[in-house]
Write a structure and sequence with these properties.
313 residues, alpha/beta, Rossmann fold, 2 domains, six-stranded mixed β-sheet, 10 strands, 12% strand, binds iron/sulfur cluster, binds zinc ion
Length: 313
Amino acid sequence: MKCRKCGKKAVINMRQHKLALCEEDFLAWFTKQTLHTIQRDSLFEADAKILVAVSGGKDSLALWDVLTGLDYSCDGLYIGLGIDDGQAYSDRSCAYAQKFAGERNLHLITVDVERAQGASIPEAARFTPRGAGKPCSLCGLTRRHIMNRVALEGGYDVLVTGHNMDDEAATLMGNTMNWLVGYLESQAPMLPEKRGFIRKAKPFHRFYERETAAYAFLREIEYIQQECPYSVDAKSIYYKNILNQIETDRPGAKQGFYLSFLQAKDQITFNHHKERATLDQTCVTCGQPTRGGTQCAFCSTWERVQTRKEAIG
Ligand code: SF4
Ligand code: ZN
């Protein structure tokens, strides 16, 4: 197959775009499309101070690479979860993030959960109902809290994540299958800043995962290829597989499902928020917004972890 732009040998064929490109033209296209998405979806301004949530995986490192190449001002944030599956998953992820930043002279902020909170995510999960069975709920709560705190304290304008369209379409499918109206309402490429919350944006939300993977490969970005051991059997992987099966038969179906949702969302009125409690209180421990009570979910959860850990000795 030949590159549609220059006629050289194509390295990727994006069937949903009916577009095959060679290495050089794909890298240029990918960078241009990222900029186009940032501008079209009003994700952030050209002079924004950006914090990139970095996991050590391909998407987040590719995102940091593209944004840096586009001359955006960005630092990285890596959160060490303390996950050791016998292959030192967290340590190796951290090493990839540090290597990437070191080789490009970029600033990487590292927060180690165990050092900051007194227990790793898997250990803490054993002490909390949120972690019963799997640590993912506690992990999500903790990462969201730390990302928000670091971004606000550092004076950043926006926190960006490497979510791609496969992630977003799988999330959409899960939310639709269960009619999680609140999550459907809040699923968006950009969540504006509001009291106590940093703006969040997903500049890769229009790319398929194979495109971000191709970019990382062609740019020779070294990243952790292993998935988090707790993601095995995750619902999101199940939905991704189903969507990819549909995509094989009907190229563009995944893109149509997700982008049509974003368009339809503008015409849908969500009424459930009338009953939903708003985040109008302030946590007495950390100062972040909370729905009620004196502490936010992060502080109350981790306080319980520390109490139970001390009790056990
Ligand atoms: Fe955290 Fe791993 Fe679960 Fe993802 S799969 S939420 S990284 S524990
Ligand atoms: Zn708090």
